[in-house]
Amino acid sequence: MEQLARLEDLPPRYLADLNQRNLVPLWPSLRDVLPPLKPIPKTQALVWKFNEIKPLLIEAGELTPIEKAERRVLVLANPGHGLENMRATSVIYLGMQLLLAKEWAPAHRHTPNAVRLIVEGEKAYTTVEGQKCEMSHGDLILTPSGLWHEHGHDGDEPVIWLDVLDLPLVYYMEASYVEGGDCQPVQRIANKPRYAAGLVPKHHHIRADQDYPMLRYPWQEAKQLLIDLAHEHTQAPVQIAYVNPETGEDCQKIIGYSALMLRPNETVQLQPRSAAMVFHIIEGQAHIKIDEKNYDLEKADTACAPCFSQIDLINTSSEPCFIFIADEAPIQKKLGLYSVRNRI
Ligand code: 1HN
C-alpha cells in the first residue's frame, strides 16, 4: 500500500486554518484508523496472578469500609489501554471484588451488563430483581443491564469474585449510568431446574425477565457436563457455552461466556479470531501461549489476549483444568464484524 503524506508535509499556516475551523485532514491518519489486513490492538497479552491480587484486596478491606466503597473492587487494567481507563480489552472490564463477613453492598442498577464468577469463599449471595443467587466457587451469576442487584454475606470468611462487565464499550457509547437503590425484598431463590426440565412459563410476552430467564449457572452442573462430554468425545476439545436456556442464544448481548476443560496433558490450539478473549482458571493449572508470550496459570489467575492472537492452552498436569472464558464475539457478530482465521 502506498505511503501517504504526513501531517508535517503540510504548511503550518494551512494546519492552523483547519484547526481553527475544527477540520482535520484524513490522509495522515488513514493508515492508523484503517491498518492493512488486521487491527493494531491496544489490548496487550497479560496475566494477573491471584496470589498477588488477594493480599492487596484483603488490605483494601482494612483500608476502606464497604460504606465508603459501595463496591470494593481492584480493577484488572490493561496498560495497553492506559491503567486509568480500567479496561482489560476494548469491550471487557474485569475486577476482583471483596465482600467481608456480614457486609452488604446496596442495590443499584445500571446500563452496563455484569456477571460474577465466584473465586473464593462461601455464603455470600447476590439478589437480582428479587431473585436470591447463592454464590459458590465457580458459579456464574448474571446481572444484566437494567436489573437491580445487591450483594450480601451471611458467612464468616471473606468472599472474592471476578466481575466481568461490558463497561468500556457502554461507556464509550456514552450510554453508561447508574440508579441507586436500597434493599430489595427477596421473592425467590434463583434455581436452574425451573428451566432445565424443558418447561417454561407460557405467555412469554408478558414475562418481564424474558431476555434473562436464568440468572445463576451453578459450577457443579457445568463441570459435570464438561466431564461427561470429555468421556463421550474423546478427541475433540471440550467447551460449553453459557446460553439463555429458552432461546439457545448467548446469555448476554455483548460479551460471550463459556467454560473449557483441558484433559490431563491436553493442548488446545485456538483459531485466531477478531474478538479479544479473557481466560480465568476455575480449577487446575495450565500454560497459556499468546503469540510468542508464555505464562503459567494457576487456580484463580486471569489472562487476556488481543484479537487475532494465536493462543495455545496447555495442560501438562495429570489433573483436568477448567477454564472460564469471556469474549467479545456476541457484539461483534451482531455488528457483522466477527471473523475466524486459520492458524499459521
Ligand atoms: C458494579 O455494579 C459492580 O454491582 C461491580 O458489584 C463492579 C464496576 C463498574 C461499574 C459497576 C457490582 C462494577 C460495577
From TrEMBL:
Quote the CDD domains the UniProt record gives: cupin_GDO-like_N (cd02216)
Q: Does the keyword Chaperone apply?
A: no
Keyword Nucleotide-binding on this protein? no
Q: Which residues form the Cupin type-2 domain?
A: 101-164
Q: Which domain of life is it from?
A: Bacteria
Q: Which UniProt keywords apply?
A: Dioxygenase, Oxidoreductase
Tell me the GO molecular function terms: dioxygenase activity
Segment forming the signal sequence: none
Which PANTHER family does its entry note?
A: 1,2-DIOXYGENASE PROTEIN-RELATED, CUPIN
Its protein name is: Gentisate 1,2-dioxygenase
Species for this entry: Acinetobacter albensis
